[in-house]
Design goal:
By secondary structure, the protein is an alpha/beta fold. It is built from 13 helices and twelve strands. The strands form three sheets. Strands 2-8-7-6-5-3-4 form a seven-stranded mixed sheet, sandwiched between helices. Strands 9-10-12 form a three-stranded antiparallel sheet. A two-stranded parallel ribbon has the order 1-11.
Length: about 375
């Protein structure tokens, strides 16, 4: 038996998603851009998915642009706004705990005449809106702050940040890959101008995502060619995955969120009460993503715990999926103020809608056993 607890990295396909996708691999194989009969049903499926996703974030369907995933959407948001707003300025504000697809894109833009300001966070991963306010300059064109952190689950105050951006006439982008369908998102109430989404974090297919761009926001087209996505992102439509993305968004439920929240809190409480030297990275309760657990066990390397659990068919992450193979400590944990040794002690455990208490009881038992053993050694 394998217990999979790395759902922040990716999730298992929901069978209903697969059932939605299969026809577009077989009889409904037509190109959605074709105007003949074979392209009609695929085109309809794409527009249906667009409407479903738009409904989840309270925007217009034609403000949703399909991409290959979160990394592309983040690249597009930063590069597209930067190159479309050069007359206004070249300053971009983001935070020190963003996903690498934001930080590396910002670094690249910095080599192409952009000015980048990284806002620090506190010891729970929260950005201070006043720090953002103080960093705004006359040439600031974009502020990008992720909604929920992929490593420590911190849910940032995007409504307050969006309000600030609207007051200052600055575009606001948020990476919502982890929070989409898990937290309430309203592009109107939270004043969001651009938002990154993807499918494989919500039991949908890999290789498909979306970028929401508020109508009227200046953002350069990302891929030129056949004119798909209103000439903003050309390329033959990935119809099966887009249809699967729409289905995954459609079937996501508040009941699943509540269940994961309860199991998250149960796990943290049980491990903390049964072992000494256990520290939670990030906030508690409602300010934390429902499925995210990030713990440090003093005097135990996260890699060692990860390896021992892996031998017992318990799958977790020694950090984020993007950094767990590196020897350097997590940039998120060091941004919280942890030293290198403490940062190397972190492990991430992330739940899914199918995780149950019996599985977690089993995992808790083995974590206690392994941590005790490693500390003795």
């Amino acid at each position: 038996m394998e217990i999979y607890l790395d759902n922040t990295a990716t999730t298992h396909y929901d069978t209903r998603v697969i059932e939605t996708m299969v026809p577009f691999y077989s009889e409904l194989y037509g190109n959605a851009s074709s105007i003949h009969k074979a392209g009609k049903r695929p085109a309809e499926a794409i527009e249906q998915a667009r409407q479903i996703i738009a409904g989840k974030i309270h925007c217009k369907p034609d403000e949703i642009y399909f991409t290959s995933g979160g990394t592309e959407s983040n690249n597009w948001a930063l590069k597209g706004v930067f190159y479309s707003n050069k007359q206004k300025g070249n300053h971009i504000i983001t935070t020190s705990i963003e996903h690498p697809s934001i930080l590396e894109t910002a670094n690249w833009l910095g080599e192409h005449k952009a000015k980048i300001t990284l806002i620090p966070v506190n010891n729970q991963g929260f950005v201070d809106v006043d720090d953002i306010r103080k960093a705004i300059r006359n040439d600031t064109v974009l502020i990008s702050v992720m909604h929920a952190n992929n490593e420590i689950g911190t849910i940032e105050p995007i409504g307050s940040i969006g309000t600030l951006c609207r007051e200052k006439g600055i575009l606001f982008h948020t990476d919502a890959c982890q929070s989409f369908t898990k937290e309430t998102i309203d592009t109107e109430e939270q004043y969001i101008d651009l938002m990154t989404l993807n499918a494989h974090k919500i039991h949908g297919p890999k290789g498909v995502g979306a970028l929401y761009i508020r109508k009227g926001s200046r953002c350069e087209a990302f891929i030129h060619g056949g004119g798909q996505e209103n000439n903003m992102r050309s390329g033959t439509y990935n119809t099966p995955d887009i249809a699967g993305f729409g289905k995954a968004a459609e079937i996501a439920s508040e009941e699943d969120v509540q269940k994961m929240s309860l199991l998250r809190d149960f796990f943290i409480s049980e491990v903390s009460s049964k072992l000494e030297g256990v520290f939670l990275n990030g906030p508690v309760g409602g300010k934390r993503l429902c499925n995210n657990i990030n713990l440090r066990f003093s005097k135990v390397k996260g890699k060692s715990l990860f390896t021992e659990l892996n031998k017992r068919n318990i799958i977790i992450s020694a950090g984020s999926a993007c950094s767990s193979t590196r020897l350097t400590p997590s940039h998120v944990l060091t941004a919280l103020g942890l030293d290198e040794e403490s940062a190397h002690e972190g492990v991430r455990i992330s739940l899914s809608k199918w995780t149950n208490k019996e599985e977690l009881d089993y995992v808790i038992h083995h974590i206690i056993d392994i941590v005790d053993d490693l500390r003795k050694k």
